[in-house]
Design goal:
Length: 307
């Protein structure tokens, strides 16, 4: 079972010819509303990849909240731990240009009302994989993570959006997912100076006794654990919208690990799934099924060992 403790947003997506600069207004034909939020995205990605998933978070008592509850339930995700807040459901405004680059602003809304005590202790077991991101109040993440560690529950943290992570929280993790900039920032503290993402991953893994996964965009991803390290390439594609790629990567990786796959195989599925998620507009609608990942996996280049 995967338990996703995370954000839930409604995305308002606009296809623009160019991303707006400071003080500039850019017109486009219209917009579409699509389910989003990093927590919700990763829960959907994991569910479509074949995992059994529960979602803990909050939505408002409004139309967007009703849509998000229904969307998660349609994906087969357990919504018993979703709270209803007096705050409005979170919203993200997303502009996507012709090169598939994006500009995102998030109004957190009900996500700020999520509390760690929404998750009862009996949900935190050695058979549970807890997945967290950084769109909730961070102190709630750390409180739940501490409880999870005490009860033998495995935990993954995706440091997105980028934010500081206390050393105590890092020590409670089994797996850390970061992009190359986040890896350097987290590893760059006293005694952890790093010159490149691989060195940062090795430093974090060695000091914190965790597995560090660094996503590298078009270059694929690397993973360094206490016992082994791997690098996988990206699946060649022509991206349409990269908005949900990182969330798909984390969700599919979690699904693979929850299913008992070795790290290198779970990493390959995550890299393939992330590339497939770039082939359509929107975060969740473009997320692939397990069958789609299986079909594309043979096109991924070879895995290499990191010494």
């Amino acid at each position: 079972m995967i338990l996703d403790f995370g954000s839930i947003n409604m995305d308002l997506v606009m296809a623009v010819t160019a991303l707006p600069r400071p003080g500039e207004t850019v017109l486009c034909d219209g917009y579409v509303t699509k389910p989003g939020g990093k927590g919700s995205n990763q829960a959907v990605a994991a569910a479509r990849a074949g995992a059994k998933v529960a979602m803990a978070g909050a939505v408002g008592d409004d139309g967007f909240g009703q849509v998000m509850r229904a969307t998660l339930a349609k994906e087969g995700i357990d919504t018993a731990l979703l709270a209803t807040s007096d705050r409005p459901t979170g919203v993200a405004y997303i502009c996507v240009d012709a090169r598939a680059e994006n500009f995102i602003a998030v109004g957190s809304g009900a996500n700020l009302a999520v509390r760690a005590d929404q998750v009862p202790d009996d949900r935190l077991t050695p058979d549970t994989l807890l997945v967290l991101q950084m769109e909730l109040p961070p102190e709630q993440n750390w409180a739940l993570l501490k409880r999870a560690r005490a009860r033998g529950c495995r935990a993954i943290l995706n440091v997105a959006p980028a934010a500081a992570v206390p050393e105590a929280a890092l020590r409670d993790l089994d797996l850390l997912v970061v992009n190359e900039h986040e890896a350097l920032a987290i590893a760059g503290g006293p005694g952890l100076a790093a010159a490149n993402p691989r060195a940062a991953a090795q430093a974090l893994s060695g000091r914190m006794s965790l597995t560090c996964v660094v996503t590298l965009g078009g270059e694929g991803a690397i993973a360094v654990g206490p016992d082994a390290g791997f690098a996988v390439p990206a699946l060649p594609t022509q991206p349409v919208d990269t908005t949900g790629a990182g969330d798909t990567f984390t969700g599919v990786l979690a699904a693979g690990l929850d299913a008992g796959l070795p790290l290198d195989q779970a990493l390959r599925r995550a890299s393939t799934g992330a590339a497939l998620a770039c082939l359509a507009l929107g975060a969740q609608e473009s997320m692939p099924t397990a069958a789609a990942i299986d079909a594309a996996l043979p096109r991924l280049g070879p895995t290499t060992a990191i010494r």
